[in-house]
Design goal:
alpha/beta, 6-stranded parallel β-sheet, single chain, 294 residues, 37% helix, 2 domains, Rossmann fold, 9 strands, Pantoate--beta-alanine Ligase, Chain: A,domain 2
Length: 294
């Protein structure tokens, strides 16, 4: 049985009011239940459902938020066309074992006259932080708000958005937020493409090319283990992506925990990529094992 305590089956609740959501979670925790939280922007896929299932295995009750956060989109980005599929999302998380769906309106998260933002430096500085100015400020602000509204024991995030997980962990540490952050493996399509809500934008032709992201990462892993220099591995990644018609925004091998350049060959590393296929922007990453030598 999912969760730690047997309890009578109850229908899943959809909550829109932050105060009601907070009260529900606090009451459950006061009765000794461990609460898991999965923050999402909806348009859920098997990757999200795997997070809900992971939370349901480790916790007594699971809350899932569905909120397309306007503050993490830039002026020219895809906020207006981002998929909104609430009915299907609710069905998916209920099947996955969630007890609550928190689906607030924007003015419940950002009340009239709101004037407070959270800015994270460090792991937010490079890559997505450079390509999408203001993005991580929006992420950190909404995640902090959600953590206060859904005061769970543990929150679950997917490894596909690796830099985001580092930003969230940094914020939790720096602000002393009383929540554990668990990062779960990326769920992939059969050809390796990381599950993403934005995959729905891809035409059939672009979808075929999108597999090049994972191909470039797995090739980088082989080259890394063969001892090739970082600069050569990064160039191989860019060359492969470009050859498949992907406009590369970055392709790098960096420190897994800081996203800064590697200081020693033994530093835990990660290969990260971002690129555009037509109008669709995709990101992915691949953890690299420690290696000896120079």
């Amino acid at each position: 049985m999912a969760g730690r305590h047997a309890h009578a089956a109850t229908s899943m609740a959809i909550v829109t009011d932050p105060e009601a959501m907070r009260a529900e979670v606090l009451a459950a925790r006061a009765s000794g239940r461990r609460i898991g939280f999965v923050p999402t922007m909806g348009a859920l896929h098997a990757g999200h459902v795997s997070l809900v299932a992971r939370a349901a295995e480790a916790c007594d009750d699971v809350a899932v938020s569905i909120f397309v956060n306007p503050t993490q989109f830039g002026p020219s980005e895809d906020f207006a066309r981002y998929p909104r599929t609430l009915e299907a999302d609710v069905a998916a998380v209920e099947q996955g074992g969630a007890r609550w769906v928190f689906a607030p309106q924007a003015d419940a998260i950002y009340p009239p006259g709101w004037a407070t933002k959270i800015v994270v430096d460090g792991p937010a500085r490079r890559f997505e932080g450079e390509v999408r100015p203001g993005h991580f400020c929006g992420v950190a602000t909404v995640v902090c708000r959600l953590f206060l509204t859904v005061p769970a024991d543990v929150a679950y995030f997917g490894a596909k958005d690796w830099q985001q997980t580092l930003v969230v962990k940094r914020m939790v540490c720096d602000l002393g937020l009383p929540i554990e952050v668990v990062v779960c493996p990326t769920v992939r399509e059969p050809d390796g493409l990381a599950m993403s809500s934005r995959n729905a934008y891809l035409s059939a032709e672009d979808r075929g090319r999108a597999a090049a992201l994972f191909e470039s990462l797995t090739a980088a892993g082989r080259s890394w283990q063969a001892g090739e220099p970082v600069a050569a591995i990064e160039q191989q990644m860019r060359t492969h992506l470009t050859s498949r018609g992907i406009a590369v925004e970055y392709a790098a091998v960096v420190d897994r925990n800081s996203l800064e350049p590697l200081t020693t060959p033994q530093t835990p590393a990660i290969a990260i990529v971002a690129g555009r296929i037509g109008k669709t922007r995709l990101i992915d990453n691949h953890l690299l094992p420690s290696r000896s030598g120079g």
